[in-house]
């Protein structure tokens, strides 16, 4: 019975590795006010991200979404109606890793299942 469970767990882990990345999407919020999020599936070449807009040294706006890998860890400076602000892109590579205020690394489903399988194999 234990070997069957272990094989099923291994199959689930491998199936999750090739799946498209799932992230949270938050269209827009200001001054750290929580925003309504939905899940979104990233396209090839995209990662989960938290996008922050700053002006005069203050964090003003935030979005969460998938972004192209080339935008990750970059900054843009934009001007809108005479108001200059900078935008930073903080990316991460695991399922829903942009759920926290920052976009630090979190445990992916595949890694969690692999660790559970190793623990079960050792316990049997």
TrEMBL record:
<feature type="domain" description="UPAR/Ly6">
    <location>
        <begin position="20"/>
        <end position="100"/>
    </location>
</feature>
<dbReference type="GO" id="GO:0030154">
    <property type="term" value="P:cell differentiation"/>
</dbReference>
<dbReference type="InterPro" id="IPR016054">
    <property type="entry name" value="LY6_UPA_recep-like"/>
</dbReference>
<keyword id="KW-0325">Glycoprotein</keyword>
<feature type="signal peptide">
    <location>
        <begin position="1"/>
        <end position="20"/>
    </location>
</feature>
<comment type="similarity">
    <text>Belongs to the SPACA4/bouncer family.</text>
</comment>
<dbReference type="GO" id="GO:0098552">
    <property type="term" value="C:side of membrane"/>
</dbReference>
<keyword id="KW-0732">Signal</keyword>
<dbReference type="InterPro" id="IPR045860">
    <property type="entry name" value="Snake_toxin-like_sf"/>
</dbReference>
<dbReference type="Pfam" id="PF00021">
    <property type="entry name" value="UPAR_LY6"/>
</dbReference>
<keyword id="KW-0449">Lipoprotein</keyword>
<keyword id="KW-0472">Membrane</keyword>
<dbReference type="InterPro" id="IPR046354">
    <property type="entry name" value="SPACA4/Bouncer"/>
</dbReference>
<keyword id="KW-1003">Cell membrane</keyword>
<protein>
    <submittedName>
        <fullName>Sperm acrosome membrane-associated protein 4</fullName>
    </submittedName>
</protein>
<keyword id="KW-0336">GPI-anchor</keyword>
<dbReference type="GO" id="GO:0005886">
    <property type="term" value="C:plasma membrane"/>
</dbReference>
<keyword id="KW-1015">Disulfide bond</keyword>
<dbReference type="GO" id="GO:0035036">
    <property type="term" value="P:sperm-egg recognition"/>
</dbReference>
């Amino acid at each position: 019975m234990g070997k069957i469970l272990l094989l099923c767990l291994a199959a689930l882990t491998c199936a999750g590795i090739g799946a498209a990345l799932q992230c949270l999407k938050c269209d827009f919020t200001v001054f750290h006010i929580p925003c309504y999020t939905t899940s979104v599936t990233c396209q090839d070449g995209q990662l989960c991200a938290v996008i922050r807009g700053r002006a005069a040294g203050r964090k003003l706006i935030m979005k969460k979404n998938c972004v192209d890998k080339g935008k990750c860890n970059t900054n843009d400076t934009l001007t809108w109606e005479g108001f200059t602000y900078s935008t930073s892109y903080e990316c991460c590579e695991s399922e829903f890793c942009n759920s926290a205020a920052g976009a630090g690394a979190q445990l992916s489903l595949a890694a969690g299942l692999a660790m559970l399988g190793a623990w079960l194999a050792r316990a049997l």
